[in-house]
Structure formats: C-alpha cells, structure tokens
Amino acid sequence: MNQQIFNMEDLARQVLEARKTQGLTQEELAGLSGTGRRFIVDLESGKQTVQMGKVIKVLAALGVALIVVTQWK
C-alpha cells in the first residue's frame, strides 16, 4: 500500500502499523534494525529529531520502501 508522508506523525503511524502487522515488538524491531528500543519508541511517537539514517534502517527492517517524489510548483 502506498502512503504519503507529510510529517513525523504520518511516518510514526506507518512504522507502528507495519511493526504491529508483522507481529513485532519494539525490542524485536530494534534488534532487526540495529537500533535501540528507545529509538523505536521515539520514532513511533513522532519525535521530530530522530536520526534519518536510523529511520532508513528501521524502514528497511520492516520491508518498507522510502520513495521521494519531487512535485515542482
């Protein structure tokens, strides 16, 4: 399913949904992505200052693709 992300809350919702759909705990996702549980908690709560490199690792661990589309106005 394609979902547009406009802010951290949107991203947080997608990560949480993907994790729960796959039956993973926050601890398991942290292990799979090489991050810490605290990072997963912060990401799923929509924290504005999470590290993008770690976000990409989490998305990869969940099998979620990050696609950037430029929409020039």
What do these coordinates show?
With 73 residues, the chain is mainly alpha-helical. The protein has a single domain (8-62), classed as Orthogonal Bundle (434 Repressor (Amino-terminal Domain)). It is 56% helix and 0% strand. The longest helix has 14 residues, at 8-21. The termini are far apart. The mean pLDDT is 95.
SSE topology sketch:
Blueprint: H1 8-21, H2 26-33, H3 37-44, H4 52-62
Helix pairs in contact: 2-3, 2-4
Keywords for this structure?
mainly alpha, 434 Repressor (Amino-terminal Domain), 56% helix
What is the fold-level CATH name, i.e. the topology?
A: 434 Repressor (Amino-terminal Domain)
Unreliable runs: none
DSSP strand tally: 0
Helix content: 55-70%
Distance between the termini: 26 Å
Radius of gyration: 12 Å
Largest sheet: none
Strand percent estimate? under 5%
Order of helices and strands: HHHH
Task: Output the number of helix runs.
Answer: 4
CATH class: Mainly Alpha
Instruction: Tell me the name of the CATH homologous superfamily.
Output: lambda repressor-like DNA-binding domains
What do the pLDDT scores average to?
A: 95
Architecture, CATH level 2?
A: Orthogonal Bundle
**Protein structure class:** mainly alpha
Quick synopsis:
This protein is an all-alpha fold.
